[in-house]
Design a protein that fits this description.
16 strands, binds magnesium ion, 449 residues, alpha/beta, 38% helix, six-stranded antiparallel beta sheet, 2 domains, Carbamate kinase, binds aspartic acid
Length: 449
Amino acid sequence: MPSTLNVAKFGGTSVANYLTIQNCADIVIKNENTKVVVVSAAAGVTNYLVLLANTALTSEQIAEVIEKIRIIELAILNELKKPSDVEDKLFALLDELEEYARHEEINFRDDLKDALLSMGERMSSLLVAAIIREKGCHAINFDVRKVLRTDDRYTQATPELETIGKLAQQLLLPELDKAIVVTQGFVGADANGKTTTLGRGGSDFTAALLAEALNASTCEIWTDVIGVYTTDPRITDKAKPLPELSFEEAAEMATFGAKVLHPATMEPALRRDIKVFVGSSKEPEKGGTWIRRNCEHEPPFRAITRRKDQVLVTVKTPKMMYAQGFLARVFEIIAKQDLSVDLITTSEIAVSFTLDNPPNSISEKMNKDTLKALSEICEVKVEHDFDAVTVVGNNMHSAAGVSSKIFAAVSNFNLRMICFGANVHNLSFVVQDKDSEEVVKVLHAALFE
Ligand code: ASP
Ligand code: MG
């Protein structure tokens, strides 16, 4: 019998407070196929935890940040009809949080950081389960670390799919007959049982991984927007919500800067053909975007995304005789750092590519090492202050007039690098960051308005 199981994930703004969690609980209860609920930390909490993890703070400052988190969590607790049901557990979690936050090595040990970062999801799953129970449905809070096995690259862990599949079948599946299972996004555990996290925004990825492990047929991502838009509605109010997207288009969009989904979310969905829905938990009646294998329409232009904080790296070997094997050596260095290069152009002796470089990020740290290693074998030029703009669509390589339409629209801007993606779903270029908003606007007008 084909599965009807649905995994529903609720983001930070959806579980921000008692009232917003009411909407989530209603959405869960209304769909009898929803047996697994994955939650993020309440909005703002992970940012506070990151602050505690990464900054050397005085004892008073630590107390202040923890107080901000307590206020958010206790506001939810105190609205519960029977706070006493979960009060002890929530206080125990807050104590655990404080213990990590005050650990003298917290700023230096990534394993401790992950233990601390996981607290937001561990608290919100407890509270969300309690609110679903209040509405008369049996719900339990399940510790995702029992099943979500990862490697031990703390703060940016990679899931181990086979083990997750086995553990989920063994330990999670039997629970679904008994109750609605509420569990934590973003969090995992390594083979020694130590807490790991999947990187910021990782809860979407968790939902897709659990959907895959449990053979679900659908995975809903509930957030604060009514689906995926033709472009970021903050850039232009002409942006329109999209009723459908293909897996490939969604993956391109997430990779190239659309903030709605964590970029890895589409991988499990694609592997198992799980349909993914994106909608707003505040306005579920407005519908949302369905992401699936076969779309009704495959237009040449679907959406425009922008990715900020790109650095443009050009490497050049001065000696032609090294040209052979040069590319291989460049890529070896990049691969060693586990960087993914999305935009690249090559000539015989020079290669240009972009690196994602958000300030204070893990990638910024890795980029430094990469550039150092590269400068040992060749000339390296690094330029900052670029954004990448990507048009996502279908058959962009072959359809006549597709690229000319794009280039006509942006002819007034200086495009630094132009790339067709390795597949047929994207065309990207790199522009000065001061121009990127305008570039997106004129493109949107030309392609969608
Ligand atoms: N709470 C984590 C974050 O803010 C994970 C997530 O929300 O997806 O990054
Ligand atoms: Mg998120």
